[in-house]
Design a protein that fits this description.
Structural class: mainly alpha
Number of strands: 0
Helix content: over 70%
Oligomer: single chain
Strand content: under 5%
Shape: globular
Number of helices: 24
Low-confidence stretches: 473-480, 482-493
Length: 493
């Protein structure tokens, strides 16, 4: 019964996505929904895209294992990133009327930096989208009683998300996400209310968690504990800033005010509501501690779904898994579109600059299929947990892309040499650090992506000192591509 209802829900989601696809007439519609989205839809997209599998399953399992100290990257760092982007970056980037962040790097620096950083951005999405695909597989496995195993479920889930994202692009993401956010909020609040009542009320749950030390933000006060805490926060709070999915939601807004406040309020809502699944998961510790201990030895991400299936009515199970699917699919669709568009616009189009709008639109759609296959392969072959996949995703963008983005927007003297050194030194230092830690020659007291961030900042400063001033540097923009990026795409179809 449950599985049939879930299948029906997936079919409805596909139908909504295909209906929205009728509004796609050109590439700009596909990528930015024509820059027509209102505040309510932008807020919903920002919230629901980031409120993914790691928020419901990954973070809740991490809280049961490590307490609040394990949540510094997500939801705290993630929510702070969204608010930072809205308040600091949204306005200047919205005014530039670009398709992707890669377009910014090309226009501000040169084609080489565009290509390098766009590749970094695309690679960073492997972990995030892979986490959603893994969670979809987990849901199918649980609901079918392992008749559909997790690996098969991943393939089915990926196919569903691709179907409604493929043709409609951002319009499909916007419409389905708006519906899914309603399901997420109402569904999780209802299930949490039921579980809280069963566990003795909010006060009893909070008191139990406090007594267990679950609200301690630091595992200890040693230098290692403090630096590990700071590195986790910085990786998510800053490393997530140069990401296409956030930029795409900003750029889809109907006006500048919506771009700023839709993103900021979406981030604030994310931090607040992310506490709901964490609280819900902890009720399991009170209601069925034996189950928690048993499931934790295998996979803490299963605790909340098992709690609902073992202790709640069929109606409540339907509501919970409907909300969970909404959570996963809203994130998967948005995060699948972002790297695909970045690859099409900033990698592929650079080699074929005379593509028509129609050709570019279909190149983006083909890339959605290709990236979904790559992500599904990654999810099937990684041993990392959902929380770990998301946490690792932003190391590459923190080390390589954050400094060029900030300097490019806010430092007029930032130049091509500074950008190249920031990217090269940042990535090289990060990769060297990862290797040295792996072979035991460097302490992991501070994560290597933080070394990469420092090296990237140093590279930018050195480049500004010794390189040509931007006004004296040769223009880096391809006139043909500049016209496409700066003005709406044609309506050729």
């Amino acid at each position: 019964m449950l599985l049939k209802l879930v299948v029906a829900y997936l079919v409805v989601s596909i139908g909504i996505g295909l209906f929205a696809a009728a509004r796609v007439h050109n590439a700009r519609d596909y990528i930015t929904a024509g820059r027509h989205l209102p505040m309510s839809v932008v807020l919903a997209m920002v919230f629901a895209t980031w409120f993914g599998a790691e928020t419901v399953l990954g973070n809740s399992g991490t809280f049961l294992k490590d307490g609040a100290s394990g949540l510094i990257s997500d939801p705290l760092g993630a929510g702070m990133c969204l608010m930072l982007f809205g308040l600091v970056f949204a306005r200047p980037l919205y005014r530039m009327n670009l398709l992707t962040l890669g377009d910014f790097f090309r226009r501000r620096y040169n084609r080489g930096i565009e290509l390098a950083l766009s590749t970094c951005i695309v690679l960073s999405y492997l972990g995030w989208v892979g986490a959603q695909i893994a969670a979809l597989g987990l849901v199918f496995d649980l609901l079918s009683g392992s008749v559909v195993d997790q690996r098969t479920g991943m393939v089915i889930g990926a196919a569903v998300v691709v179907l409604y994202t493929l043709l409609g692009g951002m319009w499909s993401v916007a419409v389905t996400t708006f519906v899914q956010m309603i399901v997420i909020v109402l569904g999780l609040l209802y299930v949490t209310w039921i579980a809280s009542d069963m566990a003795g009320g909010v006060a009893a749950v909070v008191e139990h968690a406090t007594a267990a030390g679950k609200f301690d933000l630091l595992r200890g006060t040693s230098a290692r504990d403090i630096f590990t805490w700071a590195a986790a926060f910085l990786t998510m709070a800053l490393g997530s800033v140069p990401q296409q999915d956030v930029f795409q939601r900003v750029n889809s807004s109907g006006d500048e005010r919506t771009a700023v406040w839709g993103t900021t309020l979406g981030g604030f809502s994310y931090i607040i509501f992310a506490m709901v699944p964490i609280y819900l998961a902890y009720t399991a510790q009170i209601l069925d501690p034996e189950m928690v201990a048993r499931v934790s030895t295998d996979d803490t991400q299963r605790i909340m779904p098992v709690l609902v299936m073992n202790h709640m009515s069929t109606a409540t199970q339907v509501i919970f898994f409907g909300a969970l699917l909404s959570v996963i699919m809203s994130t998967a669709s948005g995060t699948l579109l972002a790297p695909s568009v970045t690859f099409s616009e900033n990698v592929l189009r650079g080699f074929f600059p005379r593509m028509t709008d129609y050709q570019f639109l279909w190149a983006s759609r083909v890339t959605v299929i290709g990236f979904s296959l790559l992500v599904t392969w990654y999810a099937l072959n990684t041993a990392a947990s959902i929380h770990e996949m998301v946490e690792r995703a932003y190391r590459i963008t923190l080390a390589g892309a954050f400094v060029p983005l900030v300097a490019g927007i806010f430092w007029k003297r930032a130049n091509n040499l500074g950008g190249a050194l920031a990217v090269g030194l940042g990535l090289a230092t990060w990769l060297a650090g990862e290797y040295l830690i792996h072979i035991g020659m460097l302490s992991d007291i501070l994560q290597p992506q933080v070394y990469g961030l420092a090296a990237s900042a140093a590279g930018m400063i050195v480049g500004v000192i010794f390189g040509a001033r931007p006004a004296d540097a040769p223009p880096s923009e391809d006139p043909g591509r500049s016209a496409v990026a700066a003005s709406p795409c044609g309506s050729e179809s």
